[in-house]
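Help!! Second protein's tokens look totally different from the first
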Amino acid sequence: MRLYLDQKDWISLARVRLQRADPAERRAAAALMKGFGTGRLIVPFSESHVLETGARARPAKRLDVAMTIMLLSKRRALAPVHAMWVQEADAFLARRFGASGDGEPEPFGKGLAFALGIPEDKLTLPWAADASEAEIAMVEMYAIAEPGRAGLSGYDRERQARWDALVDTLSSTSGDLVKDREKYNEQDRIAAMTLIMMGNEMIGRAIGYDVQDAYLDLLREEGPWAIIREIPSLAVMTELLRVRYPDIQVPWTSHDYHDVRFLSTALAYCDAVCPDRRWGELARRSEHITNSGVIIATGRDAVPQAIEMLFGSL
């Protein structure tokens, strides 16, 4: 059972470890320990946790949270959407059109490079080939705690520039997408925008596998949602955008898109997710998300609620 924690939950767990927690934080930690006691609970960390931890101002606070993440996740990680959707797209093209790509998407893996979506052959790993798990975890802990980490900051800057550009697009189109929305199939409209946000990469992959004619026929006959709904992380992203758009009085921010992109893989693949209250309420408005069976728990007692729903009364 995989439980995705919000950044605030990792901060609370760090406070428990340092014996500075309030009663609600201690309840969350106790519930988590009961879950671990079943031998069936995994709490993966993600790129979001890495970036948010690295953004904390005080080095000691960064290290406290990074250590807690390493101790409880045991380096188990959730893939980011920019790495995940490509695998999902290849699986979709193989399943639907007989494309030659092989293998199933791998949303869960191990280590910092996996969480960031960076192939290990792109990095010079700073540990020996025979390093122990504890040694590797310590190196990764310090990498998370240090925002100027060598070899990773370039990737961070490149992705941040892309996300900032997408936020500008979301903000500029939000009014048009909400206007006359009752006259249109919203899932198709937002799914089309998701495909646009991906640039030409979807059709490029179809061309690469020589199935572009069948792909374009499906797009014309059934619409963009017929494609996006079969690509799990992009389907969740599309739905989160769809339920967020009507709230036009609240401007889009880079933090909004940060939440959308990291919840996209969490809600698509984890058994339970503890988002903040606002995004939890938005996610529950999507039948596509709720019908997948993912548990969405919010509020101060989100973690105990999620553990009880996953394992019953322990």
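Here's the second one for comparison:
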Amino acid sequence: MAKGKRGLKASGTALVQYRGPISAKIQMGSEVSRTTLKSTGPCNSNSAQFVEVYATTAGVTSNSEWSNIAPLWREYRVLGLRLEYQPAYDSGGYTGSQRLQGLGAMASYHGPAPAWQGAVTGSSTSNTWQMQGARPFHMGKVLVMEWRMNDVEEAQFFPTSTSTVVGGIYGTISGLTASTYYGSSYITWLVEFKGRV
């Protein structure tokens, strides 16, 4: 495989991988534009004492800047995304640190979202751990994960009027205190647009 410009790897004429940084300077052109979009949100446990954290390629369309940028272009694709979890508390050594004893797993994935997304149960953490590339996830520690475009299907452009999932990052933790704020997730998408309107 030949390495192309700005972290792109090509096989023949088809672009199949992105290996560059997730965060990049805005590159605006008349034919193609590349920009970084960001979002953040709280990580709260639900009434059943679970936390579910995820970022998908489709999630970029909910970014507050999307409505300003997307109408300028016909198509887009996500070259990469980064999810950083920042705890609201240290991992121990203070009153209330027992709230951080929950352990789980976080993994990047390609293709559709995990079947259990949105319906977290006691088995979700075990299922997440079995995903390829999974890492242990502790609510008292910073965890950063990245996903990069990795095949021909993910490399195709989609209409900016659609919200398409081709991969993402997913994490689950069980055994927490119910209905409690534990930290925040910070998500960064590197998006490429083409077809100026």
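Reply: Different proteins will give different token patterns, so don't panic. The chain has one domain: 2-196.
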